[in-house]
Design goal:
The complex is a heterotrimer.
Chain A (H helix, E strand, L loop, with lengths): L9 H17 L4 H29 L7 E12 L2 E9 L1 H24 L6 H19 L4 H19 L6 H38 L11 H4 L2 H9 L3 H15 L8 H4 L5 H10 L4 H8 L1 H5 L2 H22 L5 H22 L6 H31 L10 H4 L1 H15 L5 H15 L3 H26 L6 H4 L6 H16 L5 H4 L16 H20 L12 H6 L4 H50 L4 H23 L1
Antiparallel strand pairs in A: 1-2
Helix pairs in contact in A: 1-2, 1-4, 2-3, 2-4, 3-4, 3-11, 3-16, 3-22, 4-5, 5-6, 6-9, 9-12, 9-14, 11-16, 14-15, 14-20, 15-16, 15-19, 15-20, 16-18, 16-19, 16-22, 18-20, 18-22, 19-20, 19-24, 20-24
Chain B lengths: L6 H21 L3 H26 L5 H31 L13
Chain C lengths: L2 H26 L3 H22 L2 H26 L11 H24 L14 H10 L7 H22 L2 H8 L9 H6 L1
Helix pairs in contact in C: 1-2, 2-3
């Protein structure tokens, strides 16, 4: 316990305090004040988080140990089985602390401008604070129980924020969809936690729990001795796959991805914060957090790799055909999350390059994707439309937005020396180093596709002529919105040079190859350039809107009909064949039993109250009858 | 002079009185009728005491003392019952116990 | 059996028959006054039983207190609560049948219990001669083997019931007059007398 980090609990606590104060007292009175207080609290949290990061880096320059900065016994079931709330500081949590607070701060500032005209912005900032608190609590969680609680809390705040425009039926539907799909995945997560906890308990019985640790602590679950013992447990693979399903739900991996594109119904800064930079990477973070346990089961990691790679390709292909700028970005997010997931999947304990690469990509992606969303938000704010075919020629009217968006586009396309180049390069290298050529090929293809669809929306939205009247009259956003864009642009430019990979390595790293082959950066850059070039060739002419999609492009535009498949499965199969019988059972058998109990009580009451006639002789009759019966019983007993 | 008839005869006789009194208590509508039934039962009890005293413990007189007590209790009970009936009759002009159901709840 | 035994048995059944008929009249008659007469006859026959059993003193007590006191009290109650021509409305048949069934079951169970029990009959042929004196000694016995305390309790009970009877049966008007010191109305003397 390093006393120097004892104040770390302030980082999540400040937004929580602010959430309560703003939500209860300030928001109903003044929405301007609400925004300012909320932003100030996140600013304070950010400052503290950065100080912690610096202090941590000074203390452990080479990555170093995990420390529990602060801990509080919350539920004491039994010795060795105590649920604690605490703050765990290790390289990845410090990294995430910085990312979450910085992006959250910038989004708060941006929202001050973006939501300035919205009468409900007090509520908005309250929820935003709640989300920030939950996400920070998730990041610093020292045990899987706290993580699960915060996991659900971010789900709730995501639900609240997606449904922020609750007058819009589509927003309400989207929020419900997001909540239900992630909840569905969380059920598996919870079962996985229970299985894992059970096994941890079994292991604890043999290996023993170190002092000051609990069974559910990550430090215990990922300790080498525990992992060694866990590897023998037959249920480990099942437990880890279940945990992975939870992670896949939150990180919108195929086939649980369907909620994320719809989640774009929320305000754009929310999309930037929750559905691009922070919450959706919680799944990646969870897998990374439990990576040693995952590594104990090769099958679980293979599942992560296959699902990640497939999502990566699948989403990138769909993104090429979407016309809603936020949907393109949403599918892009899916695709990038797929990158991170398969990077984790290809890593092993001995050769954890993918692990570091995944977190590196998480770090850089947070900045450039938030920048893309915020830039898109500025554009939408100006044009009042989400369709890229109603934009065009915005480069001259919104120069700052244009430049920052361009930087972000190049960053995600993976051009050097921008942030995305380094991390994506590392992921591809990890796939090669650990001998997964197919995954590598997918990654390279997706790199080109990414460059293509990003180039497409950039070219269509910013270059050429204005395609609508509102695009014609668009003007630059207010300074309070531009400042975050500029800061994020700087981060997107420079984040790649921060040596994150040195910082987040695993102690089990056996010093394998940390770089791919020398030709890799050239190939990756070439793929990105090729994508951009194709986009340029196709979309440079100022067409009057894209022609009606035909043939296979319809399939793409409809996202491979995944929504339709879900609707079919739920409405045609689950509802009539599973839910309806269960509902019938519930209504008639369960409710029937409940009603029967009630009615039985009532009926017996009615019947028994008949006895209460007030007729003296009826009572006397019963009395004598009772005496006779008791006498008979007594007699029989005596004999 | 031997002791005739047997104990069983006496017992059945007194129990018959008791059962008849019980029937009266259970079936009469008039409160006075119920009181008459109660007196019959008390009388049969007193008779029973004396019978058993005579047949099982002739040298002693405890059963006879009990018979005196029973009569005393019966007298006290009759006094109070009569007073109550008079008062009820004053307010209701009837002593039909099947209509006295106010204290049901 | 001697002739005396035959005579006693005959008297027993004769008295028993009369008493049973009278008691049935007492519980079944629609005219409540007739029922009271039935009760009186039953009680008188019971006095006869006491004589048969050899307890002459008890027969006297029975006649004096029961027939002479309680029955008269009941007759008073009848006269105060209904006219002489009062006919009782019968209970519903169902109630009477149930009452009869319960009473019959009680009879059967009690007799069965009696038969199943063993009694060692130690009866002497001659009952004690000085019953009145014996009873008196038992009632006033202070050695602990007697009934001094119950005797006193019974006397208290009788006193309480006499006072209670007066208080309960007093007419509301008389009670109100009694409560107010200004009006010196005569008390409900008749009620007091009947108690």
């Amino acid at each position: 316990m390093d006393a120097g980090f004892a104040y770390a609990w302030l980082v999540p606590a400040l937004p929580l305090l602010s959430f309560a104060i703003v939500g209860l007292f300030i928001a109903p009175r003044s929405r301007q004040a609400a925004g300012l207080v909320a932003t100030a609290s996140v600013l304070a949290a950010t400052v503290i988080a950065v100080i912690i990061a610096a202090q941590y880096y000074v203390a452990f320059p080479s990555g170093g140990d995990a420390i529990i900065a602060w801990s509080f016994a919350w539920l004491e079931y039994a010795p060795g089985l105590t649920a604690t709330i605490g703050v765990l500081l290790d390289p990845i949590s410090v990294l995430l602390l910085v990312v979450v607070t910085v992006v959250s701060l910038l989004v708060h500032i941006y929202s001050l401008g973006y939501m300035a005209d919205d009468p409900g912005s007090g509520r908005y900032f309250t929820f935003l604070n709640l989300f920030t608190f939950s996400m920070l609590g998730l990041v610093v969680a020292p045990n899987i129980l706290q993580m699960f609680i915060c996991w659900e809390l971010v789900g709730v705040s995501s639900f609240l924020l997606i449904g922020y425009y609750y007058q819009k039926p589509s927003a309400v539907a989207a929020s419900k969809k997001a909540f239900i799909v992630t909840r569905f995945a969380d059920v598996f997560f919870l079962i996985g936690i229970l299985l894992l906890g059970y096994q941890g308990f079994q292991v604890a019985a043999t290996v023993g729990v170190p002092d000051g640790m609990q069974v559910f602590d990550f430090l215990f679950l990922t300790a080498p001795s525990t992992v060694g013992a866990l590897g023998d447990a037959s249920l480990l693979t099942i437990a880890m796959v279940l945990v992975f399903i939870g992670a896949a739900g939150k990180s919108a991996m195929f086939p649980l991805h369907i909620w994320l594109p719809d989640a774009m119904e929320g305000p754009t800064p929310v999309s930037a914060l929750i559905h691009a930079a922070t919450m959706v990477v919680a799944g990646i973070y969870l897998v990374a957090r439990l990576f040693p346990a995952f590594a104990g089961s090769a099958d679980a990691l293979s599942v992560a790799m296959i699902v990640g790679a497939f999502t990566c390709l699948f989403a990138a292909v769909i993104a090429c055909t979407q016309n809603d700028i936020k949907r393109v970005l949403a599918f892009s997010t899916l695709s990038q999350l797929g990158y991170m997931m398969f990077a984790l999947g290809v890593a092993t304990l001995a050769s954890p390059l993918g692990y570091a690469a995944s977190l590196f990509h998480l770090f850089t992606h947070a900045f450039f994707k938030a920048l893309l969303f915020l830039g898109a938000g500025a554009v939408i704010h100006a044009v009042h439309s989400n369709s890229i075919w109603e934009m065009g020629g915005l480069a001259r009217r919104m120069p700052v937005t244009h430049v920052t968006f361009l930087i972000a586009t190049l960053a995600i396309a993976g051009l050097p020396p921008l942030a995305g180049f380094f991390s994506k390069d590392l992921i591809l290298a990890a796939a090669l180093v650990n001998h997964h050529p197919v995954v590598f090929a997918v990654g390279l293809l997706v790199a080109a596709l990414t460059a293509f669809y990003m180039g497409r929306i950039y070219i269509v939205a910013f270059l050429g002529k204005a395609r609508s009247d509102s695009a014609e009259k668009a003007h630059e956003a207010s300074p309070v919105m531009l400042a975050p864009l500029l800061i994020l642009a700087v981060l997107s430019l420079g984040a790649g040079f921060i040596p994150v990979t040195e910082f987040v390595g695993l102690p089990s790293d056996s010093g394998h190859d940390h770089h791919g082959p020398a030709w890799l950066p050239y190939v990756a850059t070439a793929a990105g350039l090729a994508g951009l070039l194709i986009a340029w060739v196709i979309y440079r002419r100022p067409t009057e809107g894209e022609a009606e999609a035909t043939g296979w492009r319809v399939v793409l535009q409809r996202q491979f009909y995944s929504n339709e498949v879900y609707l079919f499965v739920t409405k045609r199969i689950i509802f009539p064949f599973v839910s309806a019988p269960i509902a019938w059972f519930d209504r008639h058998v369960v409710d029937g039993a409940v009603n029967l109990t009630g009615n039985l009580t009532r009926w017996s009451g009615i019947v028994l109250s008949r006895l209460q006639t007030g007729q003296l002789q009826t009572y006397a009759t019963w009395f004598v009858g009772g005496v006779v019966v008791i006498g008979l019983l007594f007699w029989w007993w005596v004999r | 002079m031997s002791l005739v008839p047997g104990l069983e005869h006496w017992f059945i006789l007194s129990t018959l009185f008791f059962a008849i009194g019980l029937y009266g208590v259970l079936s009469r509508r008039s409160a006075v009728g119920v009181l008459i039934g109660v007196e019959l039962m008390l009388n049969s009890t007193a008779l029973n005491f004396v019978i058993f005293n005579r047949y099982l413990a002739t040298p002693f007189l405890d059963g006879a003392v009990m018979m005196i007590f029973v009569i005393a209790v019966a007298a006290a009970e009759a006094v109070l019952a009569m007073a109550i009936f008079v008062q009820i009759f004053r307010s209701r002009h009837s002593v039909d116990i099947s209509t006295m159901t106010e204290m049901r709840y | 059996m001697t002739t005396a035994d035959w005579t006693v048995t005959l008297i027993f059944y004769l008295l028993g028959g009369i008493a049973l008929i009278a008691s049935i009249v007492a519980v079944a008659s629609k005219r409540i006054l007739r029922a009271a007469v039935g009760l009186a006859v039953t009680l008188a026959c019971t006095a006869g039983f006491y004589v048969l059993l050899g307890y002459d003193f008890l027969a006297g007590v029975q006649l004096l207190v029961y027939v002479g006191g309680i029955v008269v009290l009941i007759v008073y109650a009848i006269m105060l609560t209904s006219s002489m021509e009062y006919f009782e409305t019968r209970s519903p048949t169902q109630r009477r049948i149930i009452g009869a069934i319960v009473a019959a079951i009680f009879l059967v169970v009690t007799v069965a219990a009696f038969r199943a029990s063993e009694f060692t009959v130690t009866a002497m042929t001659v009952p004690p001669s000085d019953i009145a004196a014996g009873v008196g000694r038992l009632l006033l016995d202070q050695s602990g083997a007697g009934y001094l305390l119950p005797f006193e309790v019974i006397s208290l009970l009788l006193l309480a019931s006499v006072l209670g009877g007066v208080v309960i049966a007093r007419s509301p008007k008389a009670a109100a007059a009694d409560a107010s010191p200004d009006i010196h109305a005569p008390h409900g003397t008749q009620v007091e007398e009947t108690s």
